[in-house]
Design goal:
Blueprint (H helix, E strand, L loop, with lengths): L1 E4 L16 E4 L11 H12 L7 E3 L4 H14 L6 E5 L4 E4 L1
Helix pairs in contact: 1-2
Protein backbone atom coordinates (compact mmCIF):
# COMPACT_ATOMS: atom_id res chain seq x y z
CA UNK A 1 0.00 0.00 0.00
CA UNK A 2 1.31 3.41 -1.00
CA UNK A 3 0.06 6.94 -0.43
CA UNK A 4 1.15 9.04 -3.39
CA UNK A 5 1.40 12.73 -2.44
CA UNK A 6 0.81 14.80 -5.55
CA UNK A 7 3.12 17.63 -4.51
CA UNK A 8 5.41 18.15 -1.55
CA UNK A 9 4.11 20.76 0.87
CA UNK A 10 6.92 22.29 2.87
CA UNK A 11 6.02 22.82 6.50
CA UNK A 12 3.03 20.48 6.48
CA UNK A 13 3.16 17.25 8.45
CA UNK A 14 1.48 14.41 6.58
CA UNK A 15 2.83 11.53 8.67
CA UNK A 16 -0.72 10.64 9.79
CA UNK A 17 -1.25 9.36 6.24
CA UNK A 18 1.21 6.50 6.93
CA UNK A 19 -1.77 4.70 8.46
CA UNK A 20 -2.82 4.05 4.84
CA UNK A 21 0.57 3.08 3.40
CA UNK A 22 4.11 4.17 2.66
CA UNK A 23 4.39 7.80 1.58
CA UNK A 24 5.80 8.71 -1.83
CA UNK A 25 6.04 12.30 -3.05
CA UNK A 26 5.33 12.60 -6.78
CA UNK A 27 6.51 16.18 -7.43
CA UNK A 28 8.61 18.62 -5.45
CA UNK A 29 7.36 21.91 -4.06
CA UNK A 30 9.56 23.74 -6.58
CA UNK A 31 8.03 21.98 -9.58
CA UNK A 32 6.12 24.37 -11.86
CA UNK A 33 3.82 21.83 -13.49
CA UNK A 34 1.71 24.29 -15.43
CA UNK A 35 4.75 25.70 -17.25
CA UNK A 36 6.08 22.35 -18.42
CA UNK A 37 3.64 19.44 -18.31
CA UNK A 38 5.57 16.83 -20.33
CA UNK A 39 8.34 16.21 -17.75
CA UNK A 40 5.69 15.99 -15.03
CA UNK A 41 3.60 13.54 -17.05
CA UNK A 42 6.67 11.34 -17.64
CA UNK A 43 7.48 11.39 -13.89
CA UNK A 44 3.89 10.59 -12.90
CA UNK A 45 3.66 7.76 -15.42
CA UNK A 46 6.85 6.18 -14.10
CA UNK A 47 5.72 6.56 -10.47
CA UNK A 48 2.07 5.50 -10.86
CA UNK A 49 2.28 2.65 -13.39
CA UNK A 50 1.61 0.09 -10.62
CA UNK A 51 -1.20 2.11 -8.97
CA UNK A 52 -3.88 -0.27 -7.67
CA UNK A 53 -6.96 -0.46 -5.44
CA UNK A 54 -4.56 -0.78 -2.48
CA UNK A 55 -3.09 2.69 -3.05
CA UNK A 56 -4.23 6.25 -2.33
CA UNK A 57 -3.62 9.72 -3.68
CA UNK A 58 -3.12 12.53 -1.20
CA UNK A 59 -4.12 15.54 -3.28
CA UNK A 60 -1.97 18.55 -2.45
CA UNK A 61 -0.29 21.46 -4.17
CA UNK A 62 -0.60 22.57 -7.77
CA UNK A 63 -4.08 21.86 -9.24
CA UNK A 64 -2.46 20.83 -12.53
CA UNK A 65 -0.33 18.21 -10.74
CA UNK A 66 -3.44 17.00 -8.89
CA UNK A 67 -5.45 16.62 -12.11
CA UNK A 68 -2.61 14.85 -13.93
CA UNK A 69 -1.94 12.46 -11.03
CA UNK A 70 -5.63 11.54 -10.72
CA UNK A 71 -5.98 10.93 -14.46
CA UNK A 72 -2.80 8.84 -14.66
CA UNK A 73 -3.63 6.81 -11.53
CA UNK A 74 -7.08 6.07 -12.98
CA UNK A 75 -5.52 5.11 -16.32
CA UNK A 76 -3.44 2.40 -14.64
CA UNK A 77 -6.25 1.16 -12.37
CA UNK A 78 -9.20 0.56 -14.70
CA UNK A 79 -10.58 4.09 -14.28
CA UNK A 80 -10.51 4.10 -10.47
CA UNK A 81 -8.47 5.72 -7.72
CA UNK A 82 -8.85 6.35 -4.01
CA UNK A 83 -7.82 9.49 -2.20
CA UNK A 84 -7.32 10.76 1.33
CA UNK A 85 -9.13 13.80 2.64
CA UNK A 86 -7.94 15.72 5.68
CA UNK A 87 -10.69 16.52 8.14
CA UNK A 88 -9.59 19.53 10.15
CA UNK A 89 -12.33 19.02 12.76
CA UNK A 90 -11.34 15.40 13.44
CA UNK A 91 -7.62 16.02 12.77
CA UNK A 92 -7.23 12.90 10.67
CA UNK A 93 -7.39 11.58 7.12
CA UNK A 94 -10.45 9.82 5.75
CA UNK A 95 -10.34 7.56 2.68
CA UNK A 96 -12.61 8.43 -0.25
Amino acid sequence: MTVFITQELRGRDVTDATEFGDLEILTTSKNQTSYSTQPTIRKLNSSLYKFSDEDYLLLSGDPVAIALAAAIAAKYNRGRFKMLKWDRLENKYFPL
